[in-house]
UniProtKB/TrEMBL annotation:
The chain crosses the membrane at residues 57-75, 82-98, 104-123, 144-166, 178-195, 305-327. Residues 229-279 form the RING-type domain. It is found in: Membrane. GO terms for biological process: ERAD pathway. This is RING finger protein 121 isoform X1. The gene is RNF121.
Length: 330
C-alpha cells in the first residue's frame, strides 16, 4: 500500500518539480506515463498567457480553410483536367512521404506493388493503337482493386465499431490492438479506393477516346453498331434477355448495350454517369436492380471526401503553419 501511494505521489509531483528552476528530472528514470505527464506540463507552461495569440491562430486557420476551399472549387470548375491530375499526384505521393518518415514498411510494400501493377495497366491503356484486350484488362484490374478496397474498408469499419461496443473483449483482444487493426484496414480501404478510382477515370477517358466512340466534347468519331460495345469496341454475343456464363449484357436507359464489366467499370470505377456513346445521363437505379449493389455509389461519394482530406488538407495545414511562422505565432 505504501509503495502504491509513493508511486501516485511521484506521478503528481514530477510535472511540478520539472517546472521549478534549478531542479532537473531524469526522464530515463520515469515510466512512459510519467514522461507524458512531464511533457504535458511543459507544454502548458510554455503556452501559458498566449490566449490572444491562440485566438489569432484559430482565425488564421479558419480563414485559410475557407479561402482554400473556394479556390479549389473554382479550379475544379474552370480547369478540371489539371485539378484532377494534381490531386491524383498528391494522393499518390503525400502518403508516401509520411510512410518513409514514420517507417510504415508494410504500407510501403503494398504501395509499391499497387503502383507497379497500376503503372503497367496505365501504360497499356495509353498505347496507340489500342490492343483489343486492353480495355477489359484495365476494367477488370480496377474493378478487382475496387472490390478489395471496398471489402477492406467495411471490415475495418466493423472492427472499429465492435471495439467501441466492447465486443473485442469476447475474443480477449486488447482495445488498443483492436482499434489499431480496424483503423488500419479502414485507411487501406479508403486510400486505395480513392487512388484506383482516379487512375480508372484517367484510363477510361483515354481508352474510350482512342477507340473512337467517345469524346469529351463533340460527337463520336465512329458509328456504334448494335452488336458492338462502345467501351471496349468488341462484339456482344449475349443478348440482354439472356443469362451469360461469364458476364451479362446491360442495356442503358438510352437503349445502348454494353458488356457488364465494361459498363460497370465505366459508371462505378471510372465515375462516369453518362452513356459512353450518346452522353445521356445513366439511370443507376435502373441499371443496378440488386439493392446490395447501390451502396457502391454512396461509397464512391465517401471516397471523394477522403480525396480532399488526404491530398489537400496537408497542404493547407502546411500553409497555415508557414503563415504562423512568418507572423511569429506559436
Amino acid at each position: 500500500m505504501r509503495a502504491e501511494s509513493k508511486s501516485v505521489l511521484l506521478i503528481v509531483a514530477v510535472p511540478s518539480l520539472s517546472m521549478v528552476p534549478g531542479i532537473k528530472v531524469d526522464m530515463s528514470d520515469l515510466s512512459p506515463e510519467e514522461q507524458w505527464r512531464v511533457e504535458h506540463a511543459r507544454m502548458h507552461a510554455k503556452h501559458r498567457g498566449h490566449e490572444a495569440m491562440h485566438a489569432e491562430m484559430v482565425l488564421i486557420l479558419i480563414a485559410t480553410l475557407v479561402v482554400a476551399q473556394l479556390l479549389l472549387v473554382q479550379w475544379k470548375q474552370r480547369h478540371p483536367r489539371s485539378y484532377n491530375m494534381v490531386t491524383l499526384f498528391q494522393m499518390w505521393v503525400v502518403p508516401l512521404y509520411f510512410t518513409v518518415k514514420l517507417h510504415w514498411w508494410r504500407f510501403l510494400v503494398i504501395w509499391i506493388l499497387f503502383s507497379a501493377v497500376t503503372a503497367f495497366v496505365t501504360f497499356r491503356a495509353t498505347r496507340k493503337p489500342l490492343v483489343q484486350t486492353t480495355p477489359r484488362l484495365v476494367y477488370k484490374w480496377f474493378l478487382l482493386i475496387y472490390k478489395i478496397s471496398y471489402a477492406t474498408g467495411i471490415i475495418g469499419y466493423m472492427a472499429v465499431m465492435f471495439t467501441l461496443f466492447g465486443l473485442n473483449l469476447l475474443f480477449k483482444i486488447k482495445p488498443e490492438d483492436a482499434m489499431d487493426f480496424g483503423i488500419s484496414l479502414l485507411f487501406y480501404g479508403l486510400y486505395y479506393g480513392v487512388l484506383e478510382r482516379d487512375f480508372a477515370e484517367m484510363c477510361a477517358d483515354y481508352m474510350a477516346s482512342t477507340i473512337g466512340f467517345y469524346s469529351e466534347s463533340g460527337m463520336p468519331t465512329k458509328h456504334l453498331s448494335d452488336s458492338v460495345c462502345a467501351v471496349c469496341g468488341q462484339q456482344i454475343f449475349v443478348d440482354v434477355s439472356e443469362e451469360g456464363i461469364i458476364e451479362n449484357t446491360y442495356r442503358l436507359s438510352c437503349n445502348h448495350v454494353f458488356h457488364e464489366f465494361c459498363i460497370r467499370g465505366w459508371c462505378i470505377v471510372g465515375k462516369k454517369q453518362t452513356c459512353p456513346y450518346c452522353k445521356e445521363k445513366v439511370d443507376l437505379k435502373r441499371m443496378f436492380s440488386n439493392p446490395w449493389e447501390r451502396p457502391h455509389v454512396m461509397y464512391g461519394q465517401l471516397l471523394d471526401w477522403l480525396r480532399y482530406l488526404v491530398a489537400w488538407q496537408p497542404v493547407i495545414i502546411g500553409l497555415v503553419q508557414g503563415i504562423n511562422y512568418i507572423l511569429g505565432l506559436e
